[in-house]
Specification:
Number of strands: 20
Strand content: 15-25%
Structural class: alpha/beta
Helix content: 25-40%
Largest sheet: 9 strands, mixed
Distance between the termini: 48 Å
Number of helices: 11
Shape: globular
Amino acid sequence: MRNLKSFIHLLLIAVIIFLQSCGPDNTQKKTSAKSTSASTTTPTTTGNSVESSTLLTEFKKDIKNLPKLTSLPQLGMLYSIWHCTANRAPHNFVIAEAKISGQWGPLSTFHWRDHPALSSIEDYCLARNSKLATKQLELMRDLGVSFIVVDLTNNCYLEGDPAVANCASASLEMAASYQVLINAVKNLPGAPKIVPWIPFKGSLVDRVIKLMDENPEVNYKFNNKPLIIAAWDTVRDFHIGVDEKINQVKATKTVRKMWGLTGEATGPDTWSFLERCRSGFREAKGMQSCGQWGNSEMTPVATAYQETFITNSVTATPKFEGRTMTEQMKTALERKSSIVLFNGWNEWISQRFCYNNPELRIVNNLPACPIGVPEFGPNGEPTFVDMYDGEYSRDIEPDKNSDYYYQLLKSVISVVVAEAVDPSAPDIRSVYAAVGPVTGQTGSWWCKNHFGVNLGGTWECLGSNCNSNVQKNERVECGLK
């Protein structure tokens, strides 16, 4: 899948060229037989019904039997801002509707999994809808998410390169969306902080680092420095020729390298955004432990994953109505990882390819399948890599029909908070500064005057900002002595 994902990223340039060349005839939907590829319907239960579900009861029982933690892991969420060029024709097809009608968009065009609950597809672009960012951040804050990993790996990062000249408009909209996100974090008390995930090549990474320096209050600090993640896709050679840049950035930032489906750690500073469970998990329909890769520093937790194509139900692992996520969460807790990175919040879109084949050729200026490769499967089923329907996808953000996975994750996190930590461990709590910076209002000041005054006792500052004036909305971590 990693090679396929990288291949698709390269195709983004071709897709935008294709979009610009499309006329009315090119945006005509292509009709096929109705899809019968295996899928399951997303549960629609919410609220109290999630609380009383068998899955959550089993999860709570299992967490009680795990070795207790001395502190809760920090929660991160993978977050996408690449939707602006994919919510206008010809990139506004909806998979949930096409599965019923049998009508699919052209090859290589983006399709939306379903209609988001927070915005119409047409308005699902932060650059044009700042209210969307605030709604998303509020929901993630209420989950207890400490930071979002903003995926900038699909951007046209080599600015000025003639080969990516056609990506200029997409690059500008993504940059505008990133600025909207910064502003939303600044203005929302307790909002998750921002961690950029970006190739360390080209000028875009310098622009992002400049934004980090200009907006310190939105950065997530890890090991006492703002965290930035280098995209480590070896297929696109993101790892070549960047050592000097990484060493330079390390002077003021904590740098981690990240890609997915590695199966093992490739270095002490390497993370993963997606890992598979051990053999037999899919066949057991999630009724066994997962054991995905991770380490004591971080473990990724996904709601679903694939070997090659998410539409290939023989090899892809669906959400199993939440069991994939809960089993991956158990693994992270067993490993006592300091950080749990959920994958993910809002991918929503995916490109359509030929049947179980990522290759395309150009015929009459339009994408076409290689000779001998059918466009659809024997029962009319389409091919997508990362996103298909409610169960064969990773989105946690609610769609128009269900908020089941959001409510389930909220309940799962509540169970972890209540059951996973040793009750004799220090009471550790966080506060987000309502004002700042104010001279003298350091992290230690906030612990003493917020928790000490309101709850009593002696509260000690535990973070990296104990002796510095705290910025507005900056997180302060305090422990009861």
